[in-house]
Amino acid sequence: MEPNKRARSKNFTIKDKSLLVDCVKPFLNVIECTETNKKSNDKKETIWAEITTNFNSQSDNPRDAKALKSCYQHLKMTVKKENAEYKRQRFATGGGSEPQELDPTSVKLISMLGSQILPLKNLYDSGSDYHHGSSSSSPTIETLEHNTSSVISPVIDYCENSVGETLTEPTVEPIVVDSENAVTETTVGPLVNEKIRFSVKRKSHSNKLDDITSNVQAKKVRLDDRSRIEEELVELKRQNYTKQNKLLDIQLETAKLQNEAAKLEVSIKKTQAKYEETRLEQLCGVYSFPIVS
């Protein structure tokens, strides 16, 4: 008899995936909670049961909670890979076609998960926010200087007007570069040739010598302590051996005394036996009768 085979369910369509993301969104804080205690797990099971009910009421293909959870986890992994590949293609060199844009479901899931997928802001290397517009155009120096001044000037005004007053947060508009209206320029000599100088505080030779001396003294102290501890340990072992030898001598003397006591006891027993034998002979002689022939 052949075993019962589990019927394979239908694949999730794009509509089903989008519906699943919409059903998960109101309960995102509970589902993405990292706690693993019983109360949190029970709450997650209850939420997934409610999500399953909402999903099946709007979908033509009914699913169970296990299938929906598996699909949601697979969607998260897929979105992370697609977003990383999109960023890699955006930074890639060598020309080629534009990277393929993410589908609406992936964009929606990225907006929901946020920090789980998007990296932290970094302005100094390729981990910075990558440009979502056309990669063939770049901002001019005049545009950058204008945008930079528009950000720095409110900060300077705020610092000048805030002396002796209660500090409040200034409202600073972020730098926005219009890549469509920007014109590519290759003459960037003044900015490239400008060098940034850093003041490096170096230690003097006397300070280095003091550090070396202190390190040598510390090592010497540690070696002295180690030697002292080893000597104390050897002395304790020697005392222990001496006490053990004394204990063995005492045990040997005790064994000798016990042996002598046993010999003395045997001698006493022999003497008592002879005495009893002599007494018995005397008694037999007193009460002896003549033999009549």
TrEMBL record:
It comes from the Eukaryota. GO terms for molecular function: DNA binding. Residues 226-281 form a coiled coil. Residues 8-84 form the Myb/SANT-like DNA-binding domain. InterPro entries: Myb_DNA-bind_5. Keywords: Coiled coil, DNA-binding, Transcription, Transcription regulation. PANTHER family: APONTIC (PTHR21411), REGULATORY PROTEIN ZESTE (PTHR21411:SF0). Self-associates forming complexes of several hundred monomers. Involved in transvection phenomena (= synapsis-dependent gene expression), where the synaptic pairing of chromosomes carrying genes with which zeste interacts influences the expression of these genes. Zeste binds to DNA and stimulates transcription from a nearby promoter. This is Regulatory protein zeste. It comes from Culicoides sonorensis.
